[in-house]
Structures are given as C-alpha cells and as structure tokens.
Amino acid sequence: MNIVVLVKQVPDTESPRKLKSDDSTLDRAAADGVINELDEYAIEEALRIKEAHGGEVTVLTMGPDKATDSIRKALAMGADKAVHLVDEALAGSDALQTSYAIAQALGQTGYDLVVLGSESTDARTGVLAAMLAERLGVPQLSLANKVEIEGSAIKIQRQTDYGYDRVEASLPAVVSVVEKINEPRYPSFKGIMAAKKKPVQSLGIADAGIDAGQVGLANAATEVVDFAEAPPRAQGQIVTDEGDGGVKVAEFLASKKFV
Amino acid sequence: MSEILVLVDHVDGEVKKVTLELLTLANRLGDAAAVWVGAGYEGSKDKLAEYGAKKVYLAADEELTSYVVAPKAALLAQLAQDKGAAAVLVAATGEGKEIAGRLAVKLGTGVLTDVVDVAEGFVAEHSIFGGAIVAHAKVKEGTPVIAVRPNSIAPEAAPATPAEEQVSVALSDTDKAARIVERVVEEKGERPDLTEAAIVVSGGRGVGSAENFKIIEGLADSLGAAVGASRAATDAGWYPHQFQVGQTGKTVSPQLYIAAGISGAIQHRAGMQTSKTIVAINKDAEAPIFELVDFGVVGDLFQIVPQLTEEINKRK
Prior knowledge:
The complex is a heterodimer. Chain A has helices at residues 37-53, 68-77, 95-109, 128-136, 189-195, 245-255, and strands spanning 2-7, 9-11, 33-35, 56-62, 81-85, 113-117, 140-150, 153-160, 163-170, 173-177, 200-203, 222-229, 237-240. Chain A is an alpha/beta fold.
C-alpha cells in the first residue's frame, strides 16, 4: 500500500508566535519550527497501517527549506522516504491554494491512502482533509479516532460532538486523525541514524505541475487586512484562601449575576 | 438586500444555539436565509423565525445526511450560485469547517475559519495564536465562506415570517464516497455542549484522579455548566478526551470559565483565552492562569470547590 502522510512544520507553541508586519504572513524567524503535534499521530497511524498491511510510507511536506527538520523527525519515527514541496512561489499560500498544491504533489507521489492530522496548531483551520478529498474526488474519512482496513475496504470512527459516526468507504481515501487515536512512538537512536540515509526528494512547483498563478500570497483567495496584539486582560482580583475561598468566589459570581 | 446563507446546525431537529448566533450575524450583513438539511424542521421552525430567518431552504432528502460532509457542501454550492448569495455562514465546529472547506473549493472562493465577528464588507475578525493576536481578513473575490466560532455573537430575537422553499441537489458518486453506517451517541447526561455552553467548569492536573472529577461535575451542575478538562487530565485518563479544552482540543468562548487545578500552560490558554469572565482556583500562586483571571483564589481546590458548590446551591 502506498501511504502518504502529510507533515507540516509549525511555530512552536511555547515560543513567541508573530505575524510579519510587511505582508501579514507567519514570522518563521521569530519562533522555533517543530512538527505539528497532530501530525505525529498521523505518522504513527500510517506506520501502524504499513506494519499491518505492508507497503511504504512517504512523508509529504510543503514548506520552506528549514522544514527538513520535521521531515527528518518523521523519517526517524519510521517513514521510508520523503517528498519536500519547496518553492518560493508557494510562500504565503492560503488553505485553498495549499490544498491545490498538495493535491498536485499527490499526483506525483501517487497514493492509496493519504493520512494527515485534523488541524495544525498555527492556522487551526481544520479544512485541509476536506479540501483534498474534494479536489482528489476520493472519500473524506476525517476526524478519525479509529481506522480499520481490510483489502480495499476502509472503516473509521469519525469523532462527533455526540459521540462518533461509523463510516465506510473504499481506497484510495483521505484520512485525518484526531489526538488519542494512538500513542505516537519516539524515534529510536537507530531510527534517527537511519533517517539520515533515507531519500528526500525536493519538488518545485514546475515538477509538481503547479500553476504559479494559483499559489502564493499575491494570488491567495483571502487576505489579512490588518492585525494587532490582543489587548492584555485587565489584572483581576486574586485572593488567598483563608477558609472562605469558595464563598468569596460565589460572591464574585453573584456580583457578575452568574448566580 | 442580498441573501446570506446560514447552514442550520441541528442534532435530530434540535437547533444548536450557534445557529441563532449566525442568523443574528447574517441579518447584520444582509438577509438571513437558513438552510435546513435533514429531518425535524417542523419542531424548530418557530425558533428560526423568532431569530430572524427571512427565508428557509428545506432539503429533507435523507441521502444528504447519509454521507460525510460532501452532500451538504454540494447543496450549499448550488444554493449559493442559484440564489446569488452574498456569503455563506457555518458554525466553526469540526464538521462545519470541513463543509466550509469543500464549499470553498467548489465555488473557487476563499474560506475564513474560526471567525469571532464579521463587519461590513465581510471583513472577518479572528483571534489567533491562542488569543495573542487579533487579525482581520477577507475573501478577495467571490462568495465568502465563513465559519464562525460558537458563542462569539450574542443572539438577538428578531421575529420574521420566513418563506419556505423545498430544495434538492443531485449528488455525484464522489459526494457519496464516505457512507455513514451508524451514528453512535455517547451518553453525556443533561449537561450543555462544551463549545455552546454559557458557563464551562474545567479541571486539570490538580484534580488528581478520575474519581475526583465528581467535584468538578458537582460545581458544573450547580451552575448548569459544561465540564471541560485540561490536556494533563485527559492524557492521564481522568476525563474523556472529547472534553479537552486547548490547542489540540476544543476552543471555548463562554460567558464564564472556571479553571480548577489548571496551571494555564499556553496549550490550555489557546482554547479558552477569549472567555468573557475567567475564574481560577489553584494552589500555586505563580500559576500562569492567574494572569488571565478576573477573579482568582490561591488555595486547595478540594476545600474551595465543594464550598463554592454548596454556596451556589444555597443561593438558588
């Protein structure tokens, strides 16, 4: 089975995350880049599917040069090879354009199964799996907290507000996973060493058949009009419990008409 | 005025509050036109009318709800084009955002997700990076598709007499590629939905065990609130994962958020920072959650929370 797992490098949540004042895109220099957390669950799920059903796991990343750090981590976890979609022309692409570019790159890699995290910790749009399924014309098996494959049949549990839906489809398909679908493995020392020798193919937009007029900041369907740091919250009242802390909170809630 | 399509979010005919918020917002931008997919409209028609639906498109065909997301996007795409809608609003839930994504691809237009307000010219306000930055964005061309975060807009009653129109869409094989074979409803009792609740009471590492979450639930029930949990608590298995508030869980924006035994790591703050009023109870005076609070108590939650619950019940 040809499994492609999508990996995104994002700014570390623990470091200052900013937008650039000139073009309102993410300031990648301001924060350390790390692999998007939910993608680790996607990689783990892809590896488990390979272990159960055979095949190959390819990491596909779209991002600048330094996204190779995240690619190496995915390879160290056990993915077989990687494709890095990297091109100046892609900078500033929004969700719609990113889904187009990745769909084109998937045309190069081929796939039986595309696995990705349900959202990224930076943009948090949560739309990519749906957009890819729409563009590729394959089943959308998103928000999965369980995946089962038998031959060309695939079943998932799709997480919902009320519980979950059981969903059935046939491969090829796009699967997005939620946290807790599995416990991602840590790269072993052996895995880290092996990752250095695994092939990473760079793909420019021409290689992937991507139309330059459909990607990049200037051609984006959306634009940031302005942004500012959120005003800090006014310092509230903090008291130390002296046996009546609960009553104090109740009084505060009453003053705000919550009780 | 142009029509603004609002996809009604309902579970078996019971309309979610976010739909009323979307109708209110839609009427500020144009004329709210509700799109009802599936069964159960009759029981909720009065509510949609009360909150200003000037038109209701009814798509009752069972096929539309038998497959994951795609049929709803197909219906909205057709309506947006046929009716010349000025914008489409959906709830920024997991499914709502996915519908928005597919719809934007179909329309070849832009999508704005997790929006907290929309101003004239369809300029959308976002609260990003865990509430650290407020950004305004818009769709450059075509019909904007906007997913609005629940609890961001105060719903206002604005009685209307909606004209009803039956609509349908021809589904392609691709739209029917992911079949929903069963809906499993997990028992969650009488508490409101986490993302819709006006009050959320969350517990974290300091709660210490699954058993102790009863204290958090007790406080929540005294306030008619939803229960949330920090990642530390869900990772430890003390509370189910779907109740996690934070960057990799749910984003909530209630009127009142009470955090008990939660230190307030950025991971958690990202999911609750836009709450209107924040109260924290934590034994560590240095916990970062206290930077956000309107009212905080440094002390033992096992003393304070039961006392608070009792005091609230006494005042009822």
